[in-house]
Automatic annotation (TrEMBL):
GO molecular function: acyltransferase activity, transferring groups other than amino-acyl groups
Domain N-acetyltransferase: residue ranges: 12-173
InterPro entries, per database record: Acyl_CoA_acyltransferase, GNAT_dom, N-acetyltransferase
Coiled-coil stretches noted in the UniProt entry, renumbered to this chain: none
This protein's name: GNAT family N-acetyltransferase
PANTHER family hit by this protein: GNAT FAMILY, PUTATIVE (AFU_ORTHOLOGUE AFUA_3G00765)-RELATED-RELATED (PTHR43792), N-ACETYLTRANSFERASE DOMAIN-CONTAINING PROTEIN (PTHR43792:SF1)
């Protein structure tokens, strides 16, 4: 039993990602949109996924009390995507992010999950501002961020990566 809380929305369970999610994480990190819009994390095997979860997800959850959540559809218990709050290297502040298996896109799950995570950021985790980054070509992500109330701030680069990223932000007082 995890010491970290699981959350719910109308249609989803948001469970802290753990090594039991390795098969799902392996599939998600190798979807075409993940590779195109987020980048290749070199997670190619079940063992790679376990290591990625341990080093990148569980360690942040232990350090900050929040992190990546595996999204489970209530109707059939399928793992359909992930959403969370991330302390990304090279980015000041906390970043909200989301990704879905292709067959679960464009069904409102991303807004439902990200809106819940945004609410938790401000009301449970005590954050005063959250950010998001995306590439210019990922217009569906940009629309979702704007629907969540985040607004475009500026173009940034993360050290070691020359790709231009669009930075979005929302402050707690702007959250309704």
């Amino acid at each position: 039993m995890s010491q970290y809380k699981t959350y719910e929305t109308e249609r989803l369970v948001l469970k802290p990602t753990d090594e039991d999610d390795s098969e799902f994480v392996l599939a998600l990190l190798n979807t075409p949109k993940w590779l195109e819009y987020i980048g290749d994390r070199q997670v190619k095997t079940f063992e790679d996924a376990q290591t990625y979860i341990k080093n990148r997800m569980s360690s942040q959850l232990e350090r900050l009390g929040f992190g990546n959540y595996t999204l489970i559809r209530k109707t059939d218990k399928f793992k359909i995507g992930s959403c969370g709050l991330y302390d990304r290297e090279g980015l000041e502040g906390i970043d909200i992010g989301f990704a879905f298996l292709p067959e679960y896109e464009k069904q409102g799950y991303a807004f439902e999950a990200a809106n819940k995570v945004k609410q938790l950021a401000f009301e449970e985790f005590g954050l005063t501002e959250i950010h998001a980054i995306t590439i210019k070509e990922n217009t569906s992500s940009q629309r979702l961020l704007e629907k969540l109330g985040l607004r475009f701030e500026k173009i940034i680069n993360i050290p070691g990566d020359d790709e231009n990223l669009l930075l979005y932000s929302i402050k707690k007082e702007e959250h309704i």
